[in-house]
Amino acid sequence: MTQSLTLPVSGMSCAACAARIEKQLNRLPGVDAAVSFASESAQLRYDPAQANPQQLVAAIERCGFAVPRQSMRLGIGGMSCAACAARLEKVLGKLPGVSASVSFAGESAQLAWLPGLTDLDAVLAAVRRAGFEPLLPETEDKAADASAARYRRELAWFAASAAMTLPFLVEMIAMFAGSHHGWLPRLWQLALATPVQFVIGWRFYRGAWQALRGGVANMDVLVALGTSMAWLLSAAVTLLNLPGQHVYFEASAMVITLVLLGKLLETRAKGKASAAIAALMKLAPKTARVEQGGELIDVPVDRLKHGDIVVVRHGDSLPVDGEVVSGEAWLDESMLTGESRPVAKRAGDKVYAATRNQDGMLKVRAQSVGSETQLAEIVRMVAAAQGSKAPIQRLADRLSAVFVPAVSAVALLTFLSTGWLLGSWSAALIHAVAVLVIACPCALGLATPTAIMVGVGNGARRGILFRNAEALERAGKVDVLLVDKTGTLTEGRPVLRHALALSGDEDALIQLAASVEAGSEHPLARALLQKAQERGLPLLTCADFRAEVGRGVAALVEGRGLVLVGTPAWLDMAMPDEARAWQDAGATVVAVRMDGQALGWLALADPLRASSAEALRQARSLGVRVMMLTGDDAATARSIAAEAGVDEWRAGMRPQDKAVVVRELQAAGRKVAMLGDGVNDAPALAAADVSLAMGSGSDVAISAADITLMRGDLRHAVDAIRLSRRTLAKIRQNLAFAFVYNMLGIPLAALGLLNPVIAGAAMAASSVSVVSNSLLLRRWR
Ligand code: ADP
Ligand code: MG
């Protein structure tokens, strides 16, 4: 029986790519493939005995193409502890083509799946089968409402539980105060404790059953087991009227109440931890003013369509990404670019949702609405990063998985040995209950993810976007920071300062160079084109344009010849003293040559960013070695390096040379961060342990870097390292605390030195203190 499967394939630039993939796929035994460049997909028939979908995907990826996963973040209701998250992750991971990372702290799952193999319905069904409630991402507002409603419901449950437990508390206080006998008759106690145990506490049984059915033990198992034992013993004593025996109804009721209290506080704290996203979402307005048939009407943003003409008045925030059709205005784009100076926009310019019209009026044609905007993309990225798993968490996950069975064994042992030694089986039972209750691994499960959530959220608020938790964790271990010069240390907006024409006049030289540069996206090219426009020099027609990354450009200029514009080394031209002097002053000097004849020299100045020198100084004070890598000439590099205060630098580097430097440092045992402008530094960024990109304006979210700096401020690179170190320190504190708490608590409980009520309180306090400790990171600066 052959199976058929259609996989999307991205990254193909022509039909030859398709042919190459097809050949590779057909080479696999039992596979018959047809790859289409036009539809960007691979139609596959395969024999399941010989091949599986994962192999097919791997084969496509080996050819250098990607099989885009569908990904989404799904809210998950009904998880009671980290073990639930681990179990759900296992269940989802077993679905074909699905990878999932479930966050207990974020109450969500980050999912990626292959569209040909699974669909969303199958994923949702699997979540439900595992006993959880999948919550589809509605608009954030509704989600916020839902979580507020959930919180109120939890609060009501807790209040009911507390009310029924209160008499026990009064009785306990009376006992401590010396009244030797309780005033609450046993039958009354039974009447109060039973609904707490089975109505309010029903969730623990349900959770425990679902977990055990899935082959894992979680916190619900411990709570259900512990409280049921206390209740059963007491109920038996009461109903059978056993003489000389204590009852422990207060233990079962109070443990349940305290666990609920702990959950409640935890939920509230977790809500605070994810507040960063809500803050980002609030930047976009809820309604838009749309022009329809000559009239202006207010439309909720989720009803906007592509092509709608939106009117944005002075003081309004933009509801969509789009193109200006008419009007002129100054926009504050700082929420996306960090640049606080307002930007002038007129017809034809691209504008972005959430930016604010400070002055003027615009009519904008909507191009991206709702979840397609850059802002939504950023929000998604932050949410995904908050829900992702840090490598350091694996230890805690492994621990919590074996924890519950181990603790159950300890409890059993406690019961048997205490009973045997003391001869009192009811006391033995209560010791065992205390062991079960104190040992809940909640704090252990919350230690890492809450710190990650707060750390990532804090970064986002400051314009530092972490791609995932791993990036956040690794940034703190960096000990070498490599920075690119153009567009990173410098502003990336060079201006033509001097021109030296060897024959003919300056304008002719600029005209020729600009014409060749018309095909290039490089900042230097933009500078030359701008100068040509300023001076009213028309561009000449060119053919056969070619760009040599990190060296320059070439093209055939109509009626003239082959013109090259690029580094002096590439063009092999001897530099006159005048040009050398420009370099010593920090300008980039570019040579121009035609058909082997030297035409002249151009000097372009690109000022340092105001933040560069300070940022590099801060980096060094953190013990990070700083090095500048540039494709520019040594003389220019030396001058810029001196100005920025960098004493290690390398010049004349092509993008692949930068990657070699990264690997050399790594081979010497260094952890390397590369900060670049993301375009021609791609090889070095990919090789580095941590890649940082300066977000050039609104394309921030598209950048594939581990860390994107939304504001063009170099100090944020250092902040990213500091924030990472701080977050890691928090995680270690949390883990140590959770661990010590259990290490001390379990033996005390086993020896009978902790009664179950105290154990319940300690357990609730431990999760709450871990979450609160993580929340302290919000104040980090
Ligand atoms: P950096 O490493 O400083 O970011 P690049 O790798 O982008 O610099 O470029 C290195 C050098 O190559 C530049 O300093 C310039 O001399 C030359 N160059 C690159 N692209 C162009 C271009 N489009 N026009 C002229 N020169 C270029
Ligand atoms: Mg560069």
UniProtKB/TrEMBL annotation:
<keyword id="KW-0406">Ion transport</keyword>
<dbReference type="Pfam" id="PF00403">
    <property type="entry name" value="HMA"/>
</dbReference>
<dbReference type="InterPro" id="IPR036163">
    <property type="entry name" value="HMA_dom_sf"/>
</dbReference>
<keyword id="KW-0479">Metal-binding</keyword>
<protein>
    <recommendedName>
        <fullName>P-type Cu(+) transporter</fullName>
        <ecNumber>7.2.2.8</ecNumber>
    </recommendedName>
</protein>
<dbReference type="GO" id="GO:0016887">
    <property type="term" value="F:ATP hydrolysis activity"/>
</dbReference>
<keyword id="KW-0813">Transport</keyword>
<dbReference type="GO" id="GO:0060003">
    <property type="term" value="P:copper ion export"/>
</dbReference>
<dbReference type="InterPro" id="IPR059000">
    <property type="entry name" value="ATPase_P-type_domA"/>
</dbReference>
<dbReference type="InterPro" id="IPR027256">
    <property type="entry name" value="P-typ_ATPase_IB"/>
</dbReference>
<feature type="transmembrane region" description="Helical">
    <location>
        <begin position="187"/>
        <end position="205"/>
    </location>
</feature>
<dbReference type="Pfam" id="PF00702">
    <property type="entry name" value="Hydrolase"/>
</dbReference>
<feature type="transmembrane region" description="Helical">
    <location>
        <begin position="734"/>
        <end position="751"/>
    </location>
</feature>
<keyword id="KW-0472">Membrane</keyword>
<dbReference type="InterPro" id="IPR006121">
    <property type="entry name" value="HMA_dom"/>
</dbReference>
<dbReference type="GO" id="GO:0055070">
    <property type="term" value="P:copper ion homeostasis"/>
</dbReference>
<keyword id="KW-1278">Translocase</keyword>
<keyword id="KW-0547">Nucleotide-binding</keyword>
<keyword id="KW-1003">Cell membrane</keyword>
<dbReference type="InterPro" id="IPR036412">
    <property type="entry name" value="HAD-like_sf"/>
</dbReference>
<keyword id="KW-0067">ATP-binding</keyword>
<dbReference type="InterPro" id="IPR018303">
    <property type="entry name" value="ATPase_P-typ_P_site"/>
</dbReference>
<dbReference type="InterPro" id="IPR001757">
    <property type="entry name" value="P_typ_ATPase"/>
</dbReference>
<keyword id="KW-1133">Transmembrane helix</keyword>
<feature type="domain" description="HMA">
    <location>
        <begin position="70"/>
        <end position="135"/>
    </location>
</feature>
<dbReference type="GO" id="GO:0005507">
    <property type="term" value="F:copper ion binding"/>
</dbReference>
<feature type="transmembrane region" description="Helical">
    <location>
        <begin position="757"/>
        <end position="777"/>
    </location>
</feature>
<dbReference type="InterPro" id="IPR017969">
    <property type="entry name" value="Heavy-metal-associated_CS"/>
</dbReference>
<dbReference type="Pfam" id="PF00122">
    <property type="entry name" value="E1-E2_ATPase"/>
</dbReference>
<dbReference type="GO" id="GO:0005524">
    <property type="term" value="F:ATP binding"/>
</dbReference>
<dbReference type="InterPro" id="IPR023298">
    <property type="entry name" value="ATPase_P-typ_TM_dom_sf"/>
</dbReference>
<dbReference type="GO" id="GO:0005886">
    <property type="term" value="C:plasma membrane"/>
</dbReference>
<feature type="domain" description="HMA">
    <location>
        <begin position="3"/>
        <end position="68"/>
    </location>
</feature>
<keyword id="KW-0812">Transmembrane</keyword>
<dbReference type="InterPro" id="IPR023299">
    <property type="entry name" value="ATPase_P-typ_cyto_dom_N"/>
</dbReference>
<feature type="transmembrane region" description="Helical">
    <location>
        <begin position="217"/>
        <end position="240"/>
    </location>
</feature>
<dbReference type="InterPro" id="IPR008250">
    <property type="entry name" value="ATPase_P-typ_transduc_dom_A_sf"/>
</dbReference>
<dbReference type="GO" id="GO:0140581">
    <property type="term" value="F:P-type monovalent copper transporter activity"/>
</dbReference>
<dbReference type="GO" id="GO:0043682">
    <property type="term" value="F:P-type divalent copper transporter activity"/>
</dbReference>
<feature type="transmembrane region" description="Helical">
    <location>
        <begin position="428"/>
        <end position="457"/>
    </location>
</feature>
<dbReference type="InterPro" id="IPR023214">
    <property type="entry name" value="HAD_sf"/>
</dbReference>
<comment type="similarity">
    <text>Belongs to the cation transport ATPase (P-type) (TC 3.A.3) family. Type IB subfamily.</text>
</comment>
